[in-house]
Design goal:
Layout: E1 9-14, H1 18-28, E2 32-36, E3 40-46, E4 49-54, E5 66-70, H2 74-83, E6 88-95, E7 100-106, E8 112-118
Parallel strand pairs: 1-4, 5-8
Antiparallel strand pairs: 2-3, 3-4, 6-7, 7-8
Amino acid sequence: MTRPDVTQQVTFLHTADLVETAVFYQTILGLKMVLDQGRCQIFQVNGAAFIGFCEHFEGANPDGVILTLVSEQVDAWYDYLTARNVPVEKPPTLNETFNIYHLFLRDPNGYLVEIQRFLDQTWPQ
């Protein structure tokens, strides 16, 4: 039996403030809101990858969650974010353990956002 297709991917996370979250993801990160369901909003990261934020996941905890955005332009993201006075928790750094180059910031919900470039040549492009 052949595995059925997966055509898109959405990660849903909790937010207590959809407005503040939308401002961050649309204005700061430049993601397009593709669906507003009232208590949930979904943003397109690229292609078939999406992130959604919902107000009805009470009790959700941002600890242990890392939202990773993959980009070849980690240094350019750092410049872009700092020019907009977005606090960066960890500036661009080489992580030899995982063979990546990355930075960290937090979104308005306390989620850790990582922007990284895979240095491993086996990562699919």
